[in-house]
Amino acid sequence: SEQNMRSLSVKSDRNYQVIVGVNGLESIKELCKDHSKVLLIAPSSLIKLFKLKDGKNLTIFPTPDGENQKTVATLDRIWKKCAAIGLGRQDAIIGFGGGATTDLAGFASATWLRGITWYAIPTSLAGMVDASVGGKTGVNSSAGKNLIGSFYSPAKVLIDPTFLEKLSKRDLSAGMAEVIKCGFIADYKILNLVQEDDLDYSQLIYRATKVKSRVVSKDFKESKLREILNYGHTLGHAIEKDSKYKLRHGEAVSIGMVFAAELSRELAGLSEDAVHLHRELLQNFNLPIKYPRDRWKNLSTLLLMDKKVKQSKVRFIGISKIGKPVWLEDVSSNLLTKVYERIAK
Fold first, then answer.
1. What is the 3-state secondary structure (H, E, C) of the chain?
2. 223, CA 20 to 30 Å: which among 3, 4, 230, 243?
3. Residue 167 CA: distances (Å) to CA of 29, 40, 90, 189
4. pLDDT for the residue numbered 330
């Protein structure tokens, strides 16, 4: 219903609205009225699920599911399709799907005719809170994951929380990890909301997106402030890689957050209670909070290779208390090993 629509504005390479509580399928029709041609990029599985059809000025472009769509080959097929339908400067692209789809659609939009309007309609919880704010777009390539891309914000992000009913429990939980992260770094109210019996997803998405958009608006191009969004991500990225991506991003970040909390207890005076709260809330969503002991050697190698490493010292985001991020610089490898023991199984 209209009353439940809430919007917030993000200042980035351009200012745009994130609107929570829209009807996603209706929004597609509305956007088709605003542009003479619209190319909608979506995974085939979602095209089937939502019975999306080409329309008078709507062309649907099916992609594979998940990260497999973020390739230069898919991008090339999109460019060919743009040429074939004569997608012009005043036309638009819609990215309809999870974070991988909005990454791909955003980058296709940034590069076609040196940049045309695009809209994000995220369908996963991770996509709603994470991928749609911040204007990072890109594809994977033989050079590595997410190394090719650009900052190119959508004209609007349209969020329909009813899409979450279609998600698997596992995908919903993985998205929850990013919501909980926003609670720990900036908005303790989120931590109360995730403990309710009946989750108010609109409110959770709105609050998490607000945390993210405040940070991104203050710091568009990835410098220091934006790093607080990497809470749990330093070890999380290493775990994701080590698991050969069998773990979802949110699952890896969940373990990474417990690690970051334990590290914060050592270096920033975070209370035992706050560390425990990490474990409790993440476990409530069946998220993993431990990782095999014998993987540490490989993980520590990966940590040193991570692109966030400044001159071979590992730097972590911690919190001194809930809502108070701190930078943990030059963390010694002995301490990392000691703290890993606490999350090892």
1. CHHHCEEEEEECCCEEEEEECCCHHHHHHHHHHHCCCEEEEEEHHHHHHCCCCCCCCEEEEEECCHHHHCCHHHHHHHHHHHHHHCCCCCCEEEEEECHHHHHHHHHHHHHHHHCCEEEEEECCHHHHHHHCCCCEEEEEECCEEEEEEEECCCCEEEECHHHHHHCCHHHHHHHHHHHHHHHHHCCHHHHHHCCCCCCCHHHHHHHHHHHHHHHHHHCCCCCCHHHHHHCCHHHHHHHHHHCCCCCCHHHHHHHHHHHHHHHHHHHCCCCHHHHHHHHHHHHHCCCCCCECHHHHHHHHHHHHHCCCCECCECCEEEEEECCEEEEECCCCHHHHHHHHHCCEC
2. 243
3. 23, 20, 34, 25
4. 84
pLDDT per position as a tens digit, 265-304: 999 999 999 999 999 999 999 999 999 999 999 999 998 8
pLDDT band for position 222 (50/70/90)? low
Residue 151 neighbours by CB under 8 Å, 6+ apart: 12, 13, 135, 136, 137, 220, 221
